[in-house]
Amino acid sequence: MLGSPLAGTVHAQSPEPAGAPAGNRIWGLVFTKGGEAYAGFLRFVSARHSASWADSFQAEQSVGDEPFRAWANAIREGAPSVRTVELKGYRITWNTGEDDFSSRSGDFPGSRVIRIPYGSLADLRGQPPGGRTVFLSIGLRGPGANDGETPRKPEHVWSGAGRGLILRYTEDWRSTTIEVEGLDGAHATVAFGDVESVAFDPPLGAGEPPSAPLFGTAVDRSGRSFTGFVNLNGDIVLESDILEGWFDGQRSRSIPLDGVRALERVTVETGRGPSEGLRVTLAAGEAVELTPGRERRGGSIAVAVTDPGLGTATMDWVAFSALHLHDPGGDAAGSAGCQGDRVGLAPTAFHYDTFGGGTPLRGTVVTGTGEEFEGRIRWGTLKEWSWDLLHGAMDGTELAVRFANVRSIERMVAPDPPPEPARAGTAPPGRIRVNLLDGRTCEMSTHGDVGPGDAGILVRPADDGTDEDRTGWRLIRWQDVRIVRFEHPGRDVPGS
């Protein structure tokens, strides 16, 4: 049920944030299909809650045939597609006029999930639902917005997203809501199905929000730490949120996060013997040891930490060791997951004006033999925008590094193979070194986006004069890559 419209006027973009907490919270104007408007700090409530500009809007993007055509054309180096059959001992071969899309493998799926920071969105507009999905039109802001044309069909215009994309919402949109907190303290909850549009536009002089995004440092079982905005169990994202589902003996505890200093994975002695649990250290200094309720057994804690200068580090209960909550200027715990001194913006300095709408990936691919190929880049043939993510891992911690933050990616020499053979059909993961724009370096193992199973990297020179979607692309296999250097026009690169 909708609340009353909120007071307050949304102004044009502020040249400076109104303060670190206010600058980090999503602000928007929500218009309903009933003609009402709600202005304030927004929280998107679904399987994954989002409340800061660094959080990602997740949706499904259709993938047309053009990526496969470009890859197939590049791998044949322009030669025609050839088919061969054997008939009664004779081999018959002929050229075909088009590629065989029935052979498309998992490297070229019919759709892909994309995650775009809320700070890169100008607006979001709902479309009439079709079947079990709902189509959304999102407007991208700032650099990278091409001609302002929005695709008319729910297809991925892979040669250039333009200003807008039409996507399929991947969450359960029937249960998704948007919570709005007004400057006057008023609250409204708008069902996602009732939303006509959302305009993201921070106001002048908004001041501090009622609750700031949760901030802290997560430490994994290997001692690596990641500092940034915290999402705990998918639905705890603000300091005012409450940790529930845990027991102190037989007593259920509900603990507000604004009174918590740290969460640590421990073994708790109970009347039934030792049990995996959580030590909660409160701001007042008291520490309590809790055991999970029935609904949390087997997956008690999952932590995602978003560092806008890196991406997102995710730890499940197996990888998790501790979470230290602190002010943005507080001390981090553990050994940093990415090495080196950070130069540039701190995590809390990322506000709406810091993000852009995304730019095409450009740079230079250098092979092991020293050849260099410069131009437009499509990583794995599908990832082509600065808001796309490179996936890897540090032991049990999953990393999703945003290409907008990457200065270069180096392929590291693989170690000697293990004495025992790998399982049939598998290949040992490689390792890469990711050099960030802010001066830090991350070394991680690879899976999916790079390595033996990857489709390779497509590079297209800017001035080759060919049809962008199908020809002119050069395919570089991952095993032939030494380093990929990315260009970021208009951004200062430390050490350059």
Write up what this structure looks like.
With 496 residues, the chain is mostly beta strands. The protein has three domains: 20-63 and 110-200, no CATH class; 215-337, no CATH class; 352-414 and 427-486, no CATH class. The protein has helices at residues 20-24, 66-75, and strands at residues 27-32, 37-45, 56-62, 81-87, 90-96, 111-117, 121-130, 133-140, 164-169, 177-181, 187-191, 195-200, 215-220, 224-232, 242-248, 251-256, 260-270, 273-282, 287-292, 303-307, 311-315, 320-325, 335-336, 362-367, 372-379, 389-394, 397-402, 406-411, 431-436, 441-446, 457-460, 474-476, 481-486. The strands form three sheets. The chain has a 21-stranded mixed beta sheet that branches. The protein has a ten-stranded antiparallel beta sheet with strand order 6-3-9-8-7-12-1-2-10-11, with no helix packed on it. Strands 4-5 form a two-stranded antiparallel sheet. The longest helix has 10 residues, at 66-75. The protein is globular. The termini are far apart. Residues 1-21, 78-85, 92-102, 144-162 and 419-428 have low confidence and may be disordered.
Please, what is the oligomeric state? single chain
Number of domains: 3
Task: State the end-to-end CA separation.
Answer: 54 Å
Number of strands: 33
Helical amount: under 10%
Unreliable parts: 1-21, 78-85, 92-102, 144-162, 419-428
Q: What is the helix tally? A: 2
In this structure, how is the largest beta sheet organized?
21 strands, mixed
Overall geometry comes to globular
Mean of residue pLDDT? 77
